[in-house]
């Protein structure tokens, strides 16, 4: 009997990884990195699956919590193919190489720091995987288009637009259970209507047997999109008037491009006066190039900006090199600095936080989801002092959040999407949310639909 095992994003948000197996084949849907501090050690767990037996990995989209363990899977013996849309694969290459470089640098820095402090840390001082491991993934990549079926031994996969980020997909698997034809949908991360760069997520197929649905914002509604631009403009103007910098930890994928799009409009309308805007992230710069190369995947409001780049304006400074990045600290005039990582768990943002977090005139602005245990969440929760790169810093900067920028559906958007099926589902699995949110959302969806809905635990398997 076909079986589904939850190897991540079960009781937590990151580490999406689901194993589908039947007598003919094993398929892995997503292979994500754990990013919440309390679950980081799972990244190092000896693989709970047999990589050599997996026929293919199907990726919903290029965020690291959906692809970031791929290099480890390959190192551990995976020899199959990796399927995703071409934009997802182009971005995955950039993301995985960057992740590997950060893994190597972090392990190295940790080793040196622990030597100095005479202690050993909670995680191995060896990188989770290397740049070489990440490079080994690329020849396995096979691009596929939305709506074009890919056949495996006994199972067919079809990708559909999820409206979450460029090239994002929900994945349908059609398989046989005994003599019955069955379909399961993995929602991946579900986007929202009325986002600047993406169309609304595609409606689910009207008939389905099983659904694995994310619940990141299963407990919250998002403010209307039009409030985002106004709040962003107000925060920038107030910070500039105080003579401070606006420091924005931002995901390189989609969030940075959304910010640039909003900033272009704020500047064009005169709501914000021209100022230096740094994109201090080689990865975000590369991903913006990929974005620009795929206008066929654009949606939402960006459609009206096809003449010229929707992401370029006067004052924009792309700092790819390390020396250009360091020089930002010398810029004394108020500036906006966008850098990764999005949850401040690594990357150049840490240096900008160090330079600004104790300055009352600066603002740390969060524009994305901050998972429990990440530095971003710690700062957002009002903790002071905070520990960054091994030192403590008093938090004096203004801490702000613009929540409406989310690329994830809010509670009622998720509920509406998930209850639109014409035929009752055999089972719904709620994943990719904090444990209490998953459980509450599962209860609400079950009440609304009368279907069996469960929030699986890490490692739990179900017959399909
Ligand atoms: Zn995502």
From TrEMBL:
Pfam families according to UniProt: Beta-Casp (PF10996), Lactamase_B (PF00753), RMMBL (PF07521)
Region (Disordered): 106-127
Keyword Transferase: no
Domain Beta-Casp: 256-379
Domain Metallo-beta-lactamase, residue spans: 14-220
Molecular function via GO: exonuclease activity; RNA endonuclease activity
InterPro entries: Beta_Casp, MBL, Metallo-B-lactamas, RibonucZ/Hydroxyglut_hydro, RMMBL
Superkingdom assignment: Bacteria
Keyword annotations of the record: Exonuclease, Hydrolase, Nuclease
Descriptive protein name: Putative exonuclease of the beta-lactamase fold involved in RNA processing
Organism: Dehalogenimonas alkenigignens
Taxonomic lineage: Bacteria, Bacillati, Chloroflexota, Dehalococcoidia, Dehalococcoidales
């Amino acid at each position: 009997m076909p079986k589904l095992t939850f190897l991540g994003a079960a009781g937590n948000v990151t580490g999406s990884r689901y194993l589908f197996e039947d007598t003919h084949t094993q398929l892995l849907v997503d292979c994500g990195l754990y990013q919440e501090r309390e679950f980081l050690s799972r990244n190092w767990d000896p693989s709970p699956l047999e990589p050599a037996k997996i026929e293919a990995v199907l990726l919903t989209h290029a965020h690291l919590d959906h692809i970031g363990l791929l290099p480890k899977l390959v190192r551990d013996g995976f020899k199959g193919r990796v399927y995703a849309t071409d934009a997802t694969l182009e971005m995955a290459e950039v993301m995985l190489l960057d992740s590997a470089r950060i893994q190597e640098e972090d392990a190295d820095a940790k080793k040196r720091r622990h030597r100095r402090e005479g202690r050993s840390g909670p995680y191995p001082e060896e990188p989770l995987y290397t740049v070489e491991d990440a490079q080994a993934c690329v020849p396995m990549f096979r691009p596929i288009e939305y709506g074009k079926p890919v056949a495996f031994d006994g199972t067919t996969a079809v990708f559909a637009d999820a409206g979450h980020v460029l090239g994002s997909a929900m994945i349908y698997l059609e398989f046989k259970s005994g003599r019955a034809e069955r379909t399961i949908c993995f929602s991946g991360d579900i986007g929202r209507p009325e986002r600047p760069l993406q169309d609304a997520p595609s409606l689910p197929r009207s008939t389905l047997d099983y659904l694995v649905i994310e619940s990141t914002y299963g407990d919250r509604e998002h403010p209307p999109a039009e409030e985002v631009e106004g709040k962003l403009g107000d925060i920038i103007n107030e910070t500039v008037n105080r003579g401070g910098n606006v420091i924005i930890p931002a995901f390189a994928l989609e969030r940075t491009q959304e910010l640039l799009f909003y900033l272009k409009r704020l500047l064009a309308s005169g709501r914000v006066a021209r100022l230096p805007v740094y994109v201090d992230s080689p990865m975000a710069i590369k991903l913006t190039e990929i974005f620009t190369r795929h206008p066929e995947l654009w949606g939402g409001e960006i459609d009206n900006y096809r003449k010229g780049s929707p992401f370029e304006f006067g004052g924009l400074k792309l700092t790819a090199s390390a020396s250009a990045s360091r020089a930002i600290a010398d810029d004394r005039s108020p500036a906006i600095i966008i850098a990764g990582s999005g949850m401040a768990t690594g990357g150049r943002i840490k240096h900008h936080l160090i330079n600004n977090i104790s300055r009352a005139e600066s603002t740390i602005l969060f524009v994305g989801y901050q998972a429990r245990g990440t530095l971003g969440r710690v700062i957002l929760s009002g903790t002071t002092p905070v520990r960054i790169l091994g030192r403590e810093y008093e938090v004096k900067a203004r801490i702000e959040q613009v929540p409406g920028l989310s690329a994830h559906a809010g509670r009622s958007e998720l509920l509406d999407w998930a209850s639109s099926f014409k035929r009752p589902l055999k089972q719904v699995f709620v994943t990719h949310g904090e444990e209490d949110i998953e459980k509450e959302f599962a209860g609400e969806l079950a009440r609304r639909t009368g279907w069996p809905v469960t929030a699986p635990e890490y490692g739990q398997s179900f017959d399909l």
